[in-house]
Amino acid sequence: MNTMVRRLVLDVLKPHLPTILDLATALAKVSGVTGVNLSLDEVDQQTESVKATIQGENIDYDGVEDVIKNFGAAIHSIDEVVVGREIVKEYETLQER
Question: Which of 5, 22, 26, 95 lies 20 to 30 Å from 70, alpha-carbon distance?
Fold first, then answer.
């Protein structure tokens, strides 16, 4: 089965070095990735928690995972995934208000 991954939002724990600029640049080179947004969420003495939003046409998840591991980082969770021919907009429901 070929699942077309269009967007990933990951919670990533990484060491201070390499920087998020270095990580973003490396993630942007993964097959299928057209854009990367890394946001620093939390910092402690040894690590940084980063929200990674990765978008593309057919993102190679294994490639993303390999880059993150090669940077000495770990994926804590997959917080969002969008698959299919188009990106579906998420709408707020009445229960969420």
Answer: 5
- Chain-centroid distance, C-alpha 54: 5
Instruction: Parse the chain into domains and list their residue ranges.
Output: 5-85
- Indicate the CATH number for domain 5-85: 3.30.70.1340
Task: Assess contact for 54 and 10: CB atoms under 8 A.
Answer: yes
Compute the distance between CA of residue 50 and CA of residue 35 in angstroms, rounded to an integer. Answer: 16
- Tell me the C-alpha distance between 48 and 84, whole Å: 32
- Give the tens place of pLDDT for each residue, 3-18: 799 999 999 999 999 9
Q: How many helices (H) and strands (E) does the chain have?
A: 2, 4
8 Å CB contact between 42 and 48: yes
- Strands 74-83 and 33-43, by their bridges, are unpaired
